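Weekly puzzle thread! Below is a chain. First person to post its structure in C-alpha cell form gets bragging rights.
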Amino acid sequence: MAAAAAAAVGGPQPPQAEVPAPGLALDKAATAAHLKAALSRPDNRAGAEELQALLERVLSAERPLAAAADGEEAAAAGGGGGPGAAEEEALEWCKCLLAGGGGYDEFCAAVRAYDPAALCGLVWTANFVAYRCRTCGISPCMSLCAECFHQGDHTGHDFNMFRSQAGGACDCGDSNVMRESGFCKRHQIKSSSNIPCVPKDLLMMSEFVLPRFIFCLIQYLREGYNEPADVPSEKDLNKVLQLLEPQISFLEDLTKMGGAMRSVLTQVLTNQQNYKDLTSGLGENACARKSHEKYLIALKSSGLTYPEDKLVYGIQEPSAGASTLAVQGFASAAGTLGQLDSSDEEDQDGSQGLGKRKRVKLSSNTKDQSIMDVLKHKSFLEELLFWTIKYEFPQKMVTFLLNMLPDQEYKVAFTKTFVQHYAFIMKTLKKSHESDTMSNRIVHISVQLFSNEELARQVTEECQLLDIMVTVLLYMMESCLIKSELQDEENSLHVVVNCGEALLKNNTYWPLVSDFINILSHQSVAKRFLEDHGLLVTWMNFVSFFQGMNLNKRELNEHVEFESQTYYAAFAAELEACAQPMWGLLSHCKVRETQEYTRNVVRYCLEALQDWFDAINFVDEPAPNQVTFHLPLHRYYAMFLSKAVKCQELDLDSVLPDQEMLMKLMIHPLQIQASLAEIHSNMWVRNGLQIKGQAMTYVQSHFCNSMIDPDIYLLQVCASRLDPDYFISSVFERFKVVDLLTMASQHQNTVLDAEHERSMLEGALTFLVILLSLRLHLGMSDDEILRAEMVAQLCMNDRTHSSLLDLIPENPNPKSGIIPGSYSFESVLSAVADFKAPVFEPGGSMQQGMYTPKAEVWDHEFDPVMVILRTVYRRDVQSAMDRYTAFLKQSGKFPGNPWPPYKKRTPLHPSYKGLMRLLHCKTLHIVLFTLLYKILMDHQNLSEHVLCMVLYLIELGLENSAEEESDEEASACGPERCHDSWFPGSNLVSNMRHFINYVRVRVPETAPEVKRDSLASTSSDSLGSLQNSGTAQVFSLVAERRKKFQEIINRNSSEANQVVRPKTSSKWSAPGSAPQLTTAILEIKESILSLLIKLHHKLSGKQNSYYPPWLDDIEILIQPEIPKYSHGDGITAVERILLKAALQSRMNKRIIEEICRKVTPPVPPKKITAAEKKTLDKEERRQKARERQQKLLAEFASRQKSFMETAMDVDSPESDIPMEITTAEPQVSEAVYDCVICGQSGPSSEDRPTGLVVLLQASSVLGQCRDNVEPKKLPISEEEQIYPWDTCAAVHDVRLSLLQRYFKDSSCLLAVSIGWEGGVYVQTCGHTLHIDCHKSYMESLRNDQVLQGFSVDKGEFTCPLCRQFANSVLPCYPGSNVENNLWQRPSNKSIKDLIKEVEELQGRPGAFPVSISSETNLSKEMESVMKDIKNTTQKKYRDYSKTPGSPDNDFLFMYSVARTNLELELIHRGGNLCSGGASAAGKRSCLNQLFHVLALHMRLYSIDSEYNPWRKLTQLLEEMSSQLGNEEQQPEVPILYHDVTSLLLIQILMMPQPLHKDHFTCIVKVLFTLLYTQGLVALSVKCNEEDRSAWKHTGALKKNTCDAEKSYEVLLSFVISELSKGKLYHEEGTQECATIIPVAWSPESMEKYLQEFCLPFLRITSLLQHHLFGEDLPSCQEEEEFSVLSSCLGLLPTFYQTEHPFISASCLDWPVPAFDIISQWCFEINSFTERHAEQGKALLIQESKWKLPHLLQLPENYNTIFQYYHRKTCSVCTKVPKDPAVCLVCGTFVCLKGLCCKQQSYCECVLHSQNCGAGTGIFLLINASVIIIIRGHRFCLWGSVYLDAHGEEDRDLRRGKPLYICKERYKVLEQQWISHTFDHINKRWGPHYNGL
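Winning reply:
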C-alpha cells in the first residue's frame, strides 16, 4: 500500500497495534471516531500523539517525490509525482478526521449552523458583476454582490452595476465601509446573540488536523519553488499550483463553513508556537530540514535576509514582547546604508532600450534597509503570504486569504502581515512578466484592507504603514531615473524618471499608488502624514522625480524619425502618482484648524523647488525651444496656496516666497502657455503628432484641474505680486512677439517666422485675457465653478448626461463634495439646460437624449474665455460661436456675425486684488495703443481676433479701474511730466485720453516710414521743439524687463553680481544678416479714445458713424446696464467701451464729444511700394481664388443636396421615389430607361438590355408570422420557453411533408408554395443601367481595393446614383406599354371560350415573342439573374423534392419566389389592402420585371397536359373510377388540397407574356370557385354532426331554385352530402369531440368565415393584377374589403345590386355545372379518406389567418434580462459563455464568438442567423446591451433599444445605470427587419468571417 510504503520513509513508525492499517473508508471513519474519543478524554496526551503519528504518515511531504523514480533527483528537478491517488487519499483522511468519524457533509452542515453571519464577505474575481451604491457607501470602494444588492433597498439611490476589474469582496454588513441602512435582509440582524456557542468537541479535531495540513501545504510550496539563475518560468509555477489545486480548494471550502470554522483557521494561521514547532527545521526529519533550507534559499534569492544572521544589519532581534514585525528596528537602521544596490538584478533588462540616456542610481539614506530587506516569518499566515507573493498571487490562494476576512482577528493579523511584506510585493511586481494580472490581484487584496479607516489607522500607528509605503514607492521609482536635460544639460544635477521604462509605460506602479491614495482618503491617516515632517520631505523628494520629465525639444530642421509615445506614461504618472495623492491630502485641509498642515506642505514644497532650480542651474532665462508639461512641484504649491486662501483663511503673503523666487516660479508655467500657442501655430510640427497630443492632454477634462488650472492660478498669484510692467513684458517676450509691437509698418522678428506671428500674437493676448478673467481659484464657490464648467461644455455642443459627467473635471478625490451624480450636479444641470428626448431620425441615425443650453444661458452666461480654456480641439471654440450666432439670429437679438460677448466676472478674493494692476500698467497700455494703431492702419499680420482681445482687455481695465480720480488732479499733471514715457500715469481711464504725438521707431531702411521722415521734420515745428513736446522713445519691452529684473534682484541679494548672467544673451542681439535698422519719427497725434472712434468708423464703413449716445439720452449715463450692448459685433463692443469710458470720468466724456465734433479726415491711403504691391496682389489673388473655390463648393453641395432630396430617400422605405419605369402611359410607344452610369436614355433591347439595380436577399420574415396578435415574450426564467410550432413556416412544413407521405412527389410540389423560410425577396432602388455598363462598373470596383463594406466578388455593389446596397441586375423586358393597353380591352368572349384559349396558350411551347432558342444578350442575362436568385438562398430552402434536382423542384422554387414577394409586399402594406393606392413599395417595385424573368424560365418546363390542374378545374372527367386504378402508384394530390394562390401563380406564369387581361380574369374566376369550395369543405369539417345534418337538409330544399349555384347554403349542403359518402366525418364519436369547440354557427358567422377564408387569395391576386396591368388599388374600409377587391378583380358581375347584404357566393361563376365538378372534387377526397381519415381532415383545415410578424416582446427593465442571461449556461457546452447573446426573433440563447460551439468553422451566431433567418440574425448582446445585426457575410452594430433615465445608451454596460426599453427604437428595429432595409439604413458594415 502506498501509505505503508510512505510510512517506511517518514519519521518514527507508530506502533502498528494502535492504528489499524488504513483500508476502506469504513476503517477511516472508525479510526477517526476512535481518535476523537481518545482526544475527548480529560487526559488526551496519548490520543494526541496517536493522531500526530497518523498525520505524519498521511500528510508526509515526501510522498509526491517518492512516487518519482528517484527521490533526490526529482527533488532537485522540482518535479513531483503526478497528482496521484496519494493526495486524494490524504484529503479523504483529513475530511474523515475533521468529521470525527461522522459523514463529512453532515459535519459541514453542523458547523454552518453556528455561523454568526453578520458579514457577507463573498469574494469574487475579475469580470464578476457587482454593484456600488454611492448613497450607502462610506468608502468610495464599497461594493456589493448582486444578491445582497437586490435584497437591500436601494430605490432612488445613486448606484450602478459594474464589472469587477481586479476582483473584490462584498461589503454587506460591514458598517466601517457602508451605512447600515443599505444592508440586505440577511445581514441586517446582528445575529451573534441568538447563535448558541459552538460545542467544544465539534471542532476539536480541526484544531489538531489543520496545522499539519497547512504545514504540509507550505512544504509543497517550498518544494515546488526552485530558484534557478533565471527567473523561474511561468510553466513550473503553474504546474505546482495545479498539483495543489485540491488542497487549496479544500481550505477554501472550509472558509465557507462560516464563522465557527473561520475562527479555528485564524487560530491555526496566527499561532506562533505551532509554526515554530513545525517549521524550525531542527527536528531529525530530513525532509523537514531540507524544506527549511529551500525556504532560506528562497528568502536570500529574493534579496531578503532572515534575521538569524543578526550581524548583517546590526538589527537586534526584537524582544519577544515587541510587535511581531521586524520593522520595529526602523529608526536604528536608518543611516547605516551607503550606496544602495540591493537586489536589483533586473537592471540589465531595462538598460538596453535606453540608448545614451544612462540610468542614474541614487545613494540615499532616506530609506531603511529594514523596510526593504528584512523579513521574519513567525506564523503560518506570514509564510503563506510570502509564498503567495512568490508564486505571483495565484487566484485560488488570494480567494482563500480573502475569504477569511470576515473574521476580525484574522483581518488585523493579515493586514499587518501584508504591510510587512509590502516591499517584497513591490520587488516581485517589478520582476513579474504578468504585471497586469498581478497588479489586479494585489489591489484585490489591498482594497479590502485599506478601505477600512479603523484598520488603516491601526496599521499606520503600529506598523509605520506610511513610512513603508512612501519608502517603497521612492525605492521603486529609483530604479528608473535618468539625468534631466532641462535647462543646463551638462551641469544638471536633477534626475527624473524615464518615461520609456516598462515600469512607467505599463503602469506597474499602479497598485502601490492606488493603495497610497486609498489610505490618504482616511482623515486620521492623512493627518499623520501631514504632521510628519520627515515624510513630507521624502514625499516631495518623490514628487521631484517627476518634475520636468518627458522633456520635449523642438525640432528645427527635419521631422523627427521616430515619434515616441512616452507622453501617455508621463501624463498618467503625474496624474496618478502626484496629483491624486495631492487631491487626497487637500480634501483634509478644508477648515481653519488645518492651517498648520498647509504651512508644512508649502514649506517643504518651496524647499524642493529651490533645490530643483539649483539642480538645473536656473538663473533667469529658460532654455529656448524646450518644454516639459510636468511640473508637479509647482502644482502642489499652487493647489495648497489656493486651499489656504479659500478654506483656511490663511494670509496669502505669509506663505509666499520673495520676489526673486516668484520670478523663477512663473517662468516654467509661462513657458508651457507659450509653447501651447507655438504648438497650435504649427511651430512644433516637426516633432510629429505626439506633441499635439500632449497639448491636448494637458487641457483635457481628466487632467485640466491637475495641470493647466494650477498653472494658470500660480501665474495669477505671481502676477498679483510682481511688478506689472515686468510681468507683461515677460509674457510678450515668452510668446516671441516683442518685435511685432512697433508702430512701424515693417519690422524684423529675430525669433519668429512671419507666418507664425499672427497666431502667436493671438496666443499672447488670449493668455492675458484668460489670466485676467479666470476666477476658478480666485473667489468662485464650488457651485459657481460647476455651473461655469457645465455652461462651457454645453455651449460647445449638446451633450449627453454621461459625457457631461465625464467632461466636467471633478476633483479626482471622491470625497471632495462634487461627486458625479450628486445633487448639486443634477440641480445645476436642470438650471442651465433643457433635456431633448432621444429622437429617432428616419435616416436611421439614433439620437441619444441630449442636454442643450437654455436661452437665458446663451443670453447671460455664455463665457468664451471658459470655452477657450476648456477646448481640447480648436474647432470647439468655433462650434460654440456658431451656436451662439444661431441663437442670436433665432431669438432676433442680433442678425449679423456677433463677437464673443463680454461677461461680467465674479468679484476677486481680496488676496488677489494685485492681479488687476496688470491692466493699469504703462507697458500694457503701450501695447494696446500700438495694436489699435496698427489695426487702424491695416498693418499686416493682425486679425479681427486680435482686435477683439485688445478691446476685451480695455474693457476689463475699465471695469476694474481704481476709484475714480478727480478730474482736476488729472489735468494738473500736464505734458511736462512725461518726457521719458508715453503715458503720464498708470490708470487706464486717464491714459485713454492722453494724446501721443510723435513716436520714434526703428525700422528697416526699406520701410516707407524712412522716406516720410523728412516730411515730418520740415513741418511747422522744427525738430528741436518736437523733442520737447513729448516724442516717445523707442520702447523696448525686453530692455524694460531686464531693468526690472535687475532691480528686484539687487533689492533681494547683495551678491546679485554673481548670480546674474551677462545681460545680452545672444538671442536678443540684432542679427547681422537683416537689413540695417534706422530710426524714424512717426507723427501719430492720436489717443486710445480717438483710435477707438476711428475704428468704429472703419468697422462700420461710414464716416462719422459714431455719435455719443448720451447727447440724446442722458439717462444712459445713469443706468448704463443696457441690454442693447450685450450682444453684437465689433461696433457694439467699441460703443460699449466708449460708454464705459465716458461713465468713468467726465474728462473722457468731454474728449469723446470733442473728437466726434472734429470731422475726421479719411485715413490717408498708404504709399505702397512695388514690392509690397506684389505681395498684396498675391494675397488678393489668393483670397479671390479661395472665395471662388468656396462658391463652387457651395454650389456643388447644394446641387448634391437637391439630388439627395429628390432621388435618394434610401433611408425610409416609405418615401416616394420618382420611378423611371412607367407602366401605364398610353402616349409612349416603348418604355424608356435612363442608364445611371452612362446617362443615356433609351428602350431596353435584345442586344443591349437595360436592367434594374436590385438587392436579392433570403428572408424568413414570412415564416415568423403566428396566428395570434400578441408577440411572444422573451423568456426571462427557466420556466418560460418559446416553441416554434405555431409559426407559419412550421405549419407549412408539416403540411408539405404530410402531402409527400401519401401522394405523388411531383404533384405535391405543385400543390403548395415554399419560401416561407429562406424565400428570396427582391427589392430595387428604382434606378436602371445598361447591363454592359454595369459590368465595367463592377470591374472598376474590383480593381479599387479601398471599398471594404461589401464584397465585389459576391457581386455586391452600391447603386452608382443613390449608393444603395445591391447585388444583382434584373433585366427589363423589352416591350411597349401600348401593347399593355391593347391587351387590357375587355372582349366579350364567353368564359367557355376563354378557358379554351388559356388551355391552348399554356400548351404552346415557347410561345414567347422572343424565341428562346436564339441566344440573345437578353436571354443570357435573364439566365444569369435566375442563377443569382437561386444562389441567394441555401440549398435546404430550395430542395424539397424526394428526388434531388428534379425539375419540379425548380418549378416550385420559381413560382414561390413570386409568392414570397407578393406576400411580403402585403405585409409591408400592413397585412391588408384597405389603404389602396399604389403604395410606395409599388412605385419602387420590380415585380413586373421579376415576373418576366420567372415566366421565361417556367415555360422551359411544360407541364404534361394530362397533369395540368387547369383541366381538373374546368372539365368533367369521364370515368372517375379509372383514376383510382392501380394501387401501387401514389395518387396525385386531390385538387381540394391544393393551395389556390400557388395554382394562380402557376397558371399565370405558364401563360405567354404579356398576358391578356381577359385571360387573367378568367383564371381568377375559375380558381375562385375552387377556393370557395375549399372554404365550404373546411367549414363542414369544423362543425358538429347536428349542424351538418341541419345544413344538409336546408340546402337540399333550395337545390332546384334558379341561382342554386350561387347560394352557399345549397353548395354547402351538397358538399356535406358528397363527403358523407366517404369516411371523412366518421371517426368522430370517439376521442375527437373534445378538440372541436362547439360554436353556434349563424348565417352571418358562416358568411364571415367564408369571406375571411377567401380574402388572402383576393389580396394577393389584386396585388398581382396591380403589378401586371398597372391598375390602382381602390381604398376601402376593412369590412368591405372583400366586396371591393372582388369587384376590382372582375369577379362581381357589374350589374350587381348592393342593397341587400353582400353575399360572397354571388361572386361565383362556374365554368361547368357546379354540382358535377364539386362531386368530382369530393370523390378524390373520399377515396383518400377511405384509408387515412385523420390526415384527410387535417389537410382540409387550412389556417389562413396569419397575423403580421413581430420580434419578441422585451421586458421593461434591462436588469431582468441581464440577471437571467449573464449567468445562464450554454446548452451546447454547458459553460457560461463569455459573450452571451439572444436571438430577438426566436429567443434562442447563443454564444457570440464562442469557440466551444463552433461547427465547421462557423461560430454559433452566424450559424443561427442562417438557420433562423436564412442569413439575417438580430441578436441582443447581453453583456453590452447592444443589438448586432448579421446579414449574410457582413455584420453591424445596430445600437441599443435600452436607454437610461437620461435617454442614453450604455454600450458594454460601462456606466451600469438602470436601463429601460425604448419602444420607439424597438419599433424601428422591427420595421427594418420586416421591410428588409437593414442594408440600406445602417451604414457601418464589416465582414464577420464567420467568427461571431
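Puzzle host: Confirmed. Bonus trivia for everyone else. The chain is about 50% helix and 5% strand.
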